[in-house]
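RETRY 2/3 - previous attempt timed out on the joint model. Re-submitting the same 474-residue input unchanged.
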Amino acid sequence: MIIDIVTALLVVAVIGLAASILLVLASHFFGVKEDETYTKVRACLPGANCGACGYAGCDGYAKAIVEGKAKANLCIPGAMDVVEQISEVLGIEVEEPDVKEPSVAVVHCNGTCEAAPRKAEYSGVSNCRAVALLYGGPNACNFGCLGCGDCAEVCIADAICIQDGIAHVDSRACIGCGMCAKICPKNVITLKPRDSKTVVLCNNKEKGAVARKNCTNACIGCKKCELNCPEKAITVMNNLAIIDYDKCVGCDICVNNCPTHCIKNVDYITGYVKYEEQNA
Amino acid sequence: MDFQKFVIILMSSVLVNNYVLRQFLGICPFLGVSKKLNQATGMGISVTLVMLMATAATWPIYTYVLVRFELEYMRTIVFILIIAALVQFTEIVLKKFIPALHKSLGVYLPLITTNCAVLGVTINNINDGYNFVESMVSSLGCGLGFLLAMVLFCGIRSYIDDKVIPESLRGLPVTLIAASFVSLAFFGFNGIVG
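RETRY 2/3 succeeded.
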């Protein structure tokens, strides 16, 4: 009885040992040494594999950096921090990236099914880029979100959902890679600094009366926000309010004064965060 | 005579005793990696290769080591050990000598390490009392059967994707229902060979 157990133990142990020796030898003789700089550069990258840098995932980008084929400042989710780290590893000068601080995507549209009437009934391929080709889509407003979810499809963080006919970005999950902004045929999505407080939820550049007719939530370009902003952070261009996030302090004066309520505090977008906290 | 026997083993393991569709082994990659054709093919080929290698390694060890020490009952554990080591070994060697192949198979190899279809083939070969060459033919057949199931099902999935499906069935449920129909179709091969 004892002998049986011992033989079983021994045989399995010997086979296991043989296998481990085989693996050790294999990794010793056949092992491919990975470039140390590559490993270090790869460790600096966020590892989300979003592809915003234009390479196949973080591995591909790290490889391109080490081989000198790519600049060190292309990682959008990583922003300035990652650029500095990589530059330190490679011993090169820090080049400023296009996006300096960690950013988050915002859908500049609040044209929900209720607010924005349709000018036509569309029943073709459910894909924003296809929809946009046909007279700019079925929405009366030609600037707003089409709500077919191309952005949700490319989002690797699963941060975007379509609700009430428009896309919503969950800023907690968003990594700020900007892939959604690239694919949106209406350019409704833009990146803004992660710590910004106020957003304009409209992209309509038509004159006030037309915009209002096409969507009750539209920015009508009344300039009330521009006049009332104590920091002069808002300018109305092409009948659309634009916020300069370098100046905005998040005082909410514009939010409270906007007659169509198209300027919102970011808490409006992530409102359910507060709700969760309150009910925790 | 021998040749005829090999053909029978091959056909029976590809069609009649298809591992995925008849014996319900290796369902995880079958559902997980069958969304795109190139991935499905890659996975199928990797599994075939690993099955062949695993049989080539486990059959001699069973026959010459385990039987000798009367440890037949330990085969499951020993086979898992051998297959895991073998897959790791293959990965190291592939990375060194055929980096291109390693890159395309790389994702699937670690997945296969604990795939029950691979373990199933090696154990079934022993249970069916095959000799070494017969075991190799049978593993080749099982691997090809897996590949066939993957490719067939990949086509069906891309067809399902275009259809409007009731919300409660969307995703995995309808995939499983489709899989059961494919499986039923394979029951038609019952009794043809083997």
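Chain A has two domains: 36-90, 103-278. Closing ticket.
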